[in-house]
Design brief:
Elements (H helix, E strand, L loop, with lengths): L7 H31 L8 E2 L5 E2 L34 E9 L4 E6 L5 E5 L12 E9 L2 E9 L3
Antiparallel strand pairs: 1-2, 3-4, 3-6, 4-5, 6-7
Amino acid sequence: MGRSQQTFSKTEKEKKRLKKKEEKRKKMEARKLEKEENGTGGIPIAYVDHNGNLTDTPPDPSQKVKIKAKNIEIGIPKKEDIEEEFDPVRNGKVSFFDNSKGFGFIIDTETNEKYFTHVSNILDDITENDKVTFELEKGPRGMNAVKVKKVEI
């Protein structure tokens, strides 16, 4: 006579599956009873108040704000619309410069940001700790300092 194909792990898995099924059935019955007792059926309604928060009570109509559709702006204004006085010449200090490799870094005195500079963009000879003026230009890895001039003290 053949051996039974039922192993211990199979019986344990079957017990767990039946237990989950029974728990699910009990939860469903509990929800049905609760629904009958409360008399509420369906999905509860959520309202949005005048501040944009979700509430379970309807909003007060007296606090409703009227907005005209023509006053709503969609998108971002063009750069030409924004007029901002911007001085392209900036002041800074050379934090590092390597003459043999031909590059260095300049720290802006106003923003304390570090900008890369290459020997091809330098107009005067500079060394570390020199005060300089420069302009910014978009490079492949961020902003670069160009037209770098040494400031005489």
